[in-house]
Structures are given as structure tokens and as C-alpha cells.
Amino acid sequence: MKKRDDSLADLGRFSEPALLILISLAEGPKHGYAMTQDIAVVSGQRLGPGTLYGAIARLEGRKWIEPLPADDRRRPYKLTAAGQRVLRQRLESLRAVTRAAQSRLANV
Amino acid sequence: MSKGARRLLALYPRGWRDRYGDEFLALLGDEPLRVNQIISIVSGAIDARFSSDIRASINQQHGALAPQGGSSVTLLKHLCALDRKSAFTIRDGWIGAGVMVGLSVVMAFGGAFLRRQGFDEAGEFLKGLAFPASLVASNHFMFMRRQSRKAQLVITGGTLAILSATAWLAVLI
User: Fold this and answer.
1) Which of the residues B3, B47, B130, B146 has the least number of beta carbons within 10 Å of its own beta carbon?
2) Which of A51, A58, A70 sits opposite B57 (nearest CB)?
3) Interface ipTM > 0.95
């Protein structure tokens, strides 16, 4: 079996929705609807239901998020320690890219 | 919840529906679905059916032990409603092997006997069919053992029917 990569980039086209979900859950546990609302506020993007659950299934499979007991039919998810580590790494690499871009723009 | 949402949920594999179905429907709510939501749900269903990533995730969550094939195998399983675990025991394996060897020998001798009696075409047909038919029949006691009647009928019965037709055509030609 192929070993799973320990980075968000391994999620392909789901890497961005997955990043947004991790950012949303960094605030605290949320169920699917609350995540889409929060992500819309934070990023201006509204994730479709198929995209949201495609990313949730992948994140859960990697144990970067974990489900909590369902509240009625809505199941909240929380960020795991591994998920926090992956999110920090991703934000750090984004920060480096942002610094490089800003430095280049300053020289234009 | 809307009837449309339930119908669209049926596009997802059973394991996925068991795990996420309720919360997915709760997310969609009672409002009529918008076009972009429908597109997202359909593309999500295709992803759930064909992505090894999602399959691995669902299997991991269910603790499934049955080996999984590629996308085409998954599609075939879906078409034939093969959703139950297909693991078989050592005893099932011995029974299947016995059926394969036993039926091959019986059919081959049956074919030889028919030829001696002057039924050349029927004898050739039976001899030609002996091994492939026995192989398919043995699967009925192994891989197909815990599957639904419908799946057994389609896969075992259908394959035997196709084999018989081609064997008979081979004799006639």
C-alpha cells in the first residue's frame, strides 16, 4: 500500500478546501454547516457539499480531524494534534511564500 | 429534507452513506437544491466512488478487512450489488477446489462417454466446457459464497451461460 504523504499538498485539488477546514476547526469543533458558514466569512469561498465532505473524508482518513458524538444528525469535528502540526507547517510555508512575494513586489 | 437530496445521496457508495449520509443530509437541509450544489454533490459522488483515497479512509473507519480492487472493480461490484465482505474461509477454499477438480473430471469423462456413444457434438461441448465451467462453479463456493442471490445469479449464472453459448458455437463451427 502506498504510504500517505504527511502534507496537505498530497490532497491534490482538495488541498485548499482541506486547508480551509483545518483553519475553521482551529477555532474549535464545528459541524459541516458551521464550517461552510465560517469558511465563507473567513475566505469568501462557499464550499459545495460534495467538496466539503470529500475533504472531510480525506482529513479524517489521515487523522488530522476527528469526529465527536453527533448532535442530533449533525456531527461536529475537531482538529487533532497531527492536524494542528500539519496546519502550522502549511501556514509557515505560506508565510515564506508571502514574504518572498512581498519582497519582490517592493522592488518593482 | 428534500427528496432530491435523498436521491442524490444514493449516488454515493454504501460505506460512504453509512458514515456520512445523515450529516450530509442535515447539511443540505430542507431547502430545494441549487444547481451549483447539485453539481458539487454529483462530482463528490464520482470522487467517492473512484478515489482510492476516500475508499481507504472509509475502510479504515469501518475497519474493513476485505481486499479492495481498483476503480473498475469497484464499479463492477456496484453494478452487481457486491457490497458484502467477500472473505472466505480455508474450508470454503477446499470445497471450491474440490468442486473445480471434481466437476472438471466428471464433465471430461462425461464428454468422452458421450462421444463413445456416438454423440460427438455433445461430447465435444462437454469436454470443452469442463475446465472453465468448473472454475466458475467453484467460485460460487468461494468468492461468491456470501453475496446476494441476485449477484450469484448474475455473475455465476451469467458467466456459465456465456461459456456454454461460446462452447456450443465452437463445436458447431
Assistant:
1) B3
2) A58
3) no
